[in-house]
UniProtKB/TrEMBL annotation:
This is Oxidoreductase FAD-binding domain-containing protein. The chain holds residues 292 to 625 of 637 of the full protein. It comes from Sulfuritalea hydrogenivorans sk43H. GO terms for cellular component: membrane. The keyword Iron-sulfur applies. The main subunits of complex b-c1 are: cytochrome b, cytochrome c1 and the Rieske protein. Its cofactor is FAD. Residues 7-97 form the 2Fe-2S ferredoxin-type domain. GO terms for molecular function: 2 iron, 2 sulfur cluster binding; electron transfer activity; oxidoreductase activity. It comes from the Bacteria. Keywords: 2Fe-2S, Iron, Iron-sulfur, Membrane, Metal-binding, Transmembrane, Transmembrane helix. Residues 102-202 form the FAD-binding FR-type domain.
Length: 334
């Protein structure tokens, strides 16, 4: 006969049994039945939804190796947001102390502005009377028609909660970013969920070194504007690494911050400046500029935002020069 379209999944320790379709994740099935499951990125990246399979077979799905190690997988752990049921299964999970504050929203595009050849600023507005409260450094997941998600940091500070600023970089061949550059227009509806992530400024008096690569500038903008708004007097250094001058979008903004706030310093670094760029500023890799400027990085808080490749490349050499384990934070995108 035909294969059954559903199985059941039992969640322990509360022993709740719910129906699950073979084409949905364990997380989606549980949330649909209001089970207080732990999760965050819903994309196999954060590891928050890790749990144990007690019995039954699951397909673990695709996820990032740092979210679930091979040892954990061998010990029967799976990520709820990636795993699907291959039959009836029993799962053990740890409920979060505070039920998730992540909500879904539908916003509308109010303005779109090309900041440079491959970066679009998209301003989203929530329906009248709705706001989203978040911390500077967090991000949202845009939800595509088929349920896939794309992560973007808030570029605006939290004290502007009715508009959401995104800085979206065109990824060659990228389905969503191509849509943004070719078809998205004002008034379009955008579905998203958030706020997500635990990247945010720690409370201390230590000097702050921001390292941004390309659109890693977006969360930094949110955090710096938030720091100014809260009157923080900590020294802030922003190293922004891009390839060519044309990649430096909104360059006047950090220059203005530096004029208006004596604790703020802006150091743009170009890795592939062309003769036409006529660039007399810093060149090379962004972390090399930091190593030159700070012979000893002890006591500095370092916040790196950029590609996984950049973030993985910079921390070992910064740590060699005194950067301390508990003071290095990162927000990486693929
Ligand atoms: Fe992030 Fe599952 S929710 S890995």
């Amino acid at each position: 006969g035909a294969a059954p379209a559903e199985a059941v999944v039992t969640f322990h320790p509360d022993h709740r049994t719910v129906a699950i379709r073979f084409d949905e994740t364990l997380l989606d099935a549980g949330l649909r039945h209001d089970i207080n499951l732990p999760y965050e990125c819903r994309n196999g990246g954060c590891g928050q939804c890790k749990c144990t399979v007690l019995s039954g077979n699951v397909d673990p799905g695709l996820y990032q190796p740092n979210a679930l190690s091979a040892e954990e997988r061998a010990a029967g752990k799976v990520l709820l947001c990636c795993a699907t049921a291959l039959g009836d299964v029993e799962i053990e999970y740890a409920a979060p102390a505070v039920p998730s504050a992540i909500r879904q929203y539908t916003a509308h595009v109010v303005t779109m502005e090309r900041l440079t050849h491959d970066v679009m600023r998209v301003m989203l507005k929530l329906p009248h009377g709705q706001q989203i409260s978040f911390r500077a450094g967090q991000y949202i997941n845009i939800i595509l028609d088929d349920g896939q998600r794309r992560a973007f940091s808030f570029a605006n500070p939290p004290h502007q909660p009715d508009l959401i600023e995104l800085q979206i970089r065109l990824m060659p061949g990228g389905r969503f970013t191509t849509h943004v550059f070719e078809h998205m227009k004002e008034d379009d509806a955008v579905q998203f969920e958030g706020p997500l992530g635990d990247f945010s400024l720690r409370e201390s008096e230590r000097p702050i070194v921001f390292v941004a690569g390309a659109t890693g500038f977006a969360p930094v903008k949110s955090m710096v504007e938030d720091a100014f708004h809260r009157g923080l007097k900590r020294p802030i250094y922003l190293y922004w690494g891009v390839r060519k001058l044309a990649d430096l979008y909104l360059p006047d903004l950090p220059q203005r911050w530096a004029r208006d706030h004596e604790n703020f310093h802006f150091i743009p670094v170009l890795s592939d400046a062309t003769p036409e760029d006529n660039w007399s500023g810093r060149t090379g890799l962004v972390h090399e500029a930091i190593l030159e400027d700070f012979p000893d990085l002890r006591g500095k808080e370092i916040y790196a935002c950029g590609s996984v490749k950049m973030v993985e490349a910079i921390f070992p050499s910064l740590k060699n020069q005194g950067a301390e384990e508990g003071m290095c934070f990162s927000d990486a995108f693929t």
